[in-house]
């Protein structure tokens, strides 16, 4: 769960109803209109014919008072401090008028409204204080969730780094390969226009794409010279091993996808051979280009790093067959921009951390 999701959860817990500014104005105006009508009706000596008899117009002041006070309560509940301040001002403005009518003009009909308004004043104060207490508890809970979320991410980064270091310690000829693939993959994802959170997922999937090599014998991984067909079949098993190792991390299924399918080919001739074309998960299609690029631009047991123009030609040659054309094109753009051939094997220490 990221920061935006936590904020959304906090908002959802506070209220499922999203009041608008129009409703705020409407409640204020309705309260004012009710108060004015109540003031006029309390001074009226007229009657209306209802329910088989005459009913004094002053009898309706209680109904209007109740409706007006409901407006104040709604303002306080849904608009927090602005609603509370508006309600407080409206109530306090009403008390002098009621007091004048009761003690100066001796209008007895005001008495019920006076006590109702007094109770409403106490109610909105209580509601406001209660809302503040609830909001404070929600903020504390949200802060705890944020800290827990950051701790979980930090633990994941440290675990991922430990796994990558274990791979590097096992393969003497590809030190730093995983971190470079992760960085190249994220650059491709960013250039492709993926959202930042998706780019971070691509980064970690690239970082752990070769974790399955932990289960490959050292004699094969560090063999000098060409592998036999049997040895190559064993090496190919690292994608399935990576899938098995990472599949238990249910919170981050994307890293399992990257490890499992980064050797699929766009033309369907890759391994494990389950997908082709757009059917290959996008994250794996991105890593496939970055992985091949780094393999060619790095030293291996059987050869030195290839010249940049040779690497470029191989990426272009694999466009549409080995690689997704759009990600191959982005890789070609990055190569063309790298005039000093900086994107290649160097002394790499895994200290880079993607932001939370």
Which secondary structure elements does this structure contain, and how are they paired or packed?
Elements: H1 3-14, H2 21-42, E1 47-50, E2 53-56, H3 61-104, H4 110-170, H5 177-192, H6 196-207, H7 218-221, H8 229-236, H9 238-246, H10 253-261, H11 282-296, H12 308-317, H13 325-337
Antiparallel strand pairs: 1-2
Helix pairs in contact: 1-4, 2-3, 3-4, 5-6, 5-11, 6-10, 6-11, 9-10, 10-11, 12-13
Account of the 3D structure:
- It contains 13 helices and two strands.
- Strands 1-2 form a two-stranded antiparallel ribbon.
- The radius of gyration is 35 Å and the shape is rod-shaped.
- It is mainly alpha-helical.
Integer average pLDDT: 83
Structural class: mainly alpha
Spatial separation of the terminal alpha carbons: 11 Å
Low-confidence stretches: 347-353
Short description:
The chain contains 13 helices and two strands.
């Amino acid at each position: 769960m990221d920061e935006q999701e936590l904020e959304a959860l906090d908002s959802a817990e506070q209220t499922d109803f999203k009041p608008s500014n129009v409703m705020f104005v409407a409640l204020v105006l309705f309260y004012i209109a009710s108060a004015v009508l109540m003031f006029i009706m309390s001074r009226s000596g007229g009657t209306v014919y209802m329910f088989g008899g005459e009913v004094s117009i002053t009898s309706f002041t209680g109904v209007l008072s109740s409706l007006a006070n409901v407006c104040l309560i709604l303002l306080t509940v849904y608009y927090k401090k602005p609603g509370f301040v508006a309600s407080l001002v409206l109530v306090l403005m009403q008390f002098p008028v009621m007091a004048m009518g009761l003690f100066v003009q001796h209008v007895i009909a005001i008495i019920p409204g006076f006590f109702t308004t007094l109770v409403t004043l106490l109610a909105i104060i209580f509601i406001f204080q209660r809302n503040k207490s609830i909001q404070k508890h929600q903020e504390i809970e949200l802060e705890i969730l944020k800290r827990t979320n950051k701790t979980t991410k930090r633990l994941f980064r440290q675990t991922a780094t430990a796994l990558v270091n274990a791979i590097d310690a096992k393969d003497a000829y590809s030190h730093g390969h995983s971190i470079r693939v992760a960085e190249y993959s994220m650059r491709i994802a960013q250039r492709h226009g993926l959202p930042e959170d998706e780019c971070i997922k691509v980064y970690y999937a690239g970082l752990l794409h070769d974790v399955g090599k932990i289960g490959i014998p050292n004699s094969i991984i560090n063999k000098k010279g060409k592998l036999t067909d049997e040895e190559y079949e064993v090496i190919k098993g690292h994608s399935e091993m990576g899938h098995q190792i990472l599949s238990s991390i249910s919170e981050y299924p994307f890293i399992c996808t990257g490890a499992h399918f980064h050797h699929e080919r766009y033309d369907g001739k890759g391994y494990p051979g389950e997908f082709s074309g757009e059917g290959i998960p996008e994250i794996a299609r991105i890593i496939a280009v970055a992985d091949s690029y780094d393999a060619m631009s790095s030293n291996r047991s059987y050869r030195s790093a290839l010249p940049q123009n040779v690497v470029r030609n191989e990426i272009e040659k694999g466009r549409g067959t080995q690689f997704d054309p759009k990600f191959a094109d982005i890789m070609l753009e990055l190569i063309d921009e790298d005039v000093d051939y900086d994107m290649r094997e160097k002394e790499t220490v895994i200290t880079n951390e993607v932001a939370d």
